[in-house]
Design a protein that fits this description.
By secondary structure, the chain is an alpha/beta fold. It has one domain: 3-Layer(aba) Sandwich (Rossmann fold), CATH 3.40.50.2300. Strands 4-3-5-6-7 form a five-stranded parallel sheet, with helices on both faces. A two-stranded antiparallel sheet has the order 1-2. Strand 5, helix 3 and strand 6 form a beta-alpha-beta unit. Helix 2 runs parallel beside helix 3. It starts with a strand and ends with a helix. The N terminus is likely disordered.
Length: about 140
């Protein structure tokens, strides 16, 4: 489960699965998350993401909604079925898709492009909600 990092200005260290089919964007987000102290596993498709999810404990999943095969929605549904306690943050360049993902249970949604501080804030909010819910 997520741990608070000492001296980290209340940022949490979490294990995050990042799923996005755009390698450049995924790499930038990966670096942002690592710089913030999170452990990150990358996947380039929903199928690859589900394999990674099965192979390791994840605190949060961040998934693109629109990928080559429209896998974002299916990925979130599968994760919610297997581990309903794991929050999903949906990301997309299309606002309408994000609203739909929120209706289906995404913990947060972010419209691309977004800056690092917006992403870290969303993760911190989700982690705070997890720690409040467990105590």
């Amino acid at each position: 489960m997520a741990m608070q990092m000492p001296g980290s200005d209340d940022h949490f260290m979490a294990t995050i699965l990042l799923i996005d089919d755009n390698p450049e964007f995924r790499h930038e987000v990966f670096l942002c998350l690592e710089d913030a102290g999170h452990r990150v596993t990358e996947a380039s498709s929903g199928e690859e993401g589900l394999k990674a999810f099965k192979n390791g404990a994840q605190d949060i999943v961040i998934t693109d909604v629109v990928m080559d095969h429209g896998e974002g929605l299916e990925t979130m549904r599968w994760i919610h079925e297997m581990a309903p306690e794991v929050p999903v943050i949906a990301i997309s360049g299309h606002q309408a898709y994000l609203k739909y993902m929120e209706k289906l249970g995404a913990a947060r949604s972010l419209q691309k492009p977004f800056n690092a501080s917006v992403l870290i804030h969303a993760i911190d909010e989700v982690l705070t909600g997890l720690s409040l819910g467990s105590g």
